[in-house]
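The protein record passed on below.

***
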Amino acid sequence: MESTTRRQALLKVIHERLEEAYDDTLEDVIELLDIRKKEDLEDIKAVQEGREDIKINGSISWQQIKQELASE
């Protein structure tokens, strides 16, 4: 519930400020949102590829990782 209330408060402030913003500022906001969305999609793709790789090649156990780190 707290995050919903916080989100609503942030959206209200953003809306108020955007009403006063210059057009180029609005274009910058859109560009930033597009960049964020692209990054999110890239992250999702990387996770999916990682899961597929684990299905094909398996994974390394935590025990093996600890042993490798200890030997360094």
